[in-house]
Amino acid sequence: MLQYTFEDMQKMDRAILGNMVPLELFRTIRLIGLNQGLPMGGKGTTLTVGRKIGESLPVNSVDELLQLFEELKIGIPRIIFSDESRINIAVDDCFCKGLPTLEEEKMICDLEGAILEGALTKIMGHRVSVKEVKCNATGHEHCEYEVKL
Ligand SMILES: [Zn+2]
Q: Where is the 4-vinyl reductase 4VR domain (predicted)?
């Protein structure tokens, strides 16, 4: 079976509407389609989808990954802690910024964490795990991921 690659996604020929779609469409697919449309808030599925996307990204280093994350306008990532066992990545201007808080406990940027996990696993050559530890949607000052190397 032939499969699309990320490079295919970058081939665009849309004369009138161009290469952008509005943030509300991305949010709708993410939060209403995935999180609310799938059983269990889409938990396992979102993880599978995110990892697959992460693995498909044409990046070979953490720097390249963070740069692409920003180019794709998911958010502006920056490393706020790093040692041999752990990296913490804060994300400013995350796609979720401005959404109302629905539940104090419910962080909503799980897909983006899974994308980082898939990409970092490929870059590092071994399995890493990424956990969402802060989110604008739960009242934090930014979204943040903790990467266990
Ligand atoms: Zn968030």
A: 86-149
All structural domains of the chain, each given as residue ranges with its CATH number in brackets, are 22-148 (3.30.1380.20)
- The DSSP annotation for 1-57 comes to -----HHHHT----TTTTT---HHHHHIIIIIIIIHHSGGGGHHHHHHHHHHHHHHS
| CA 16–ligand 1 middle distance (angstroms) | 32
Residues with CB under 5 A from ligand 1 (ion): 94, 96, 109, 135-136, 143
Ligand 1 centroid from CA 20, angstroms: 21
Q: If residue 62 lies in a helix (H) or strand (E), which one and from where to where?
A: helix 62-71
